[in-house]
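Researcher: Quick one. two chains, 290 residues in total.
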Amino acid sequence: MAFQILLNLMIAFLWMFLNNDWTASGFIVGYALGVAVLIVMRRFFGGRLYLGKVWAILKLAGLLLRELVVSSYVVVKAVLRPNLNIRPAILMYHTELKSDWEVAVLITMLCLTPGSVVLEVSKDNRTLYIHAMDITDVEQFDANIRNTFERAILEVTRS
Amino acid sequence: MEMIKTAVELLFVLLILTGALLSAVSSVGLIRLPDVYLRSHAAAKSATLGVLCILSGAFLYFAFFLDFVSAKLLLGIVFVFMTSPLSAHLTGRAAYRSGVPLWNRRIQDDLKGALEKEQLKEQAKTDSSSS
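Model:
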């Protein structure tokens, strides 16, 4: 992975040397050419291209932004309603993520989206205790986290 | 040309206004909601989106109209996104561990049993080491 990024940078600088063009736009053109070269030569690298990972990170950021807007709307609606009919609960959630890094990212994202705060993490990093603001269906809450955040994080860190 | 400029400017104004409104609503939530945990939802969360809207609106305005790319505003967004979940987690954890009661209309509490089990285990450990 690091090798691929280095190669891409080297191609970009080679392009700048050849053109004697030391501007930001020259670098961007060289970098784009490097990306094209990497895509053409992808059969010769072991593992997948780093561009796939960059795309997965962008998708994760997009997902976070969408969840942020959707659940902010839910919280704002709950706060402004004249009578408070919310059902808060502390729920246990078993995560399939293994490394510390993955779990930390998951917790950060859960805490960032309104409507859920992680209160406690068990010692083996596998069980999270989440305080949720409005629960209608526990199964659905679990499935929602599993299918959105966990899947997106796995896509970034996998191989 | 002038029309488009005004429209884009209005768009940024709308973005900043949304951010300000979100911050206002989250402070209302801070007063209205019944217990610490629910209040931390309102304080930490709606505020993140509010700050995101205000800072990105200011960033876009500076970049488009004054030709000034302010990296400090982007850094502000990054730092808010790093610190606000952390503070929400830690206040919630500290509140639960020091025994702040939950709202009486909660529907489920999975943490209580787990925490009691852990405390029993720790107590057993200290008992066996002291004797």
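The CA atoms of residues 10 and 108 of chain A lie 35 Å apart.
Researcher: Thanks, that's what I needed.
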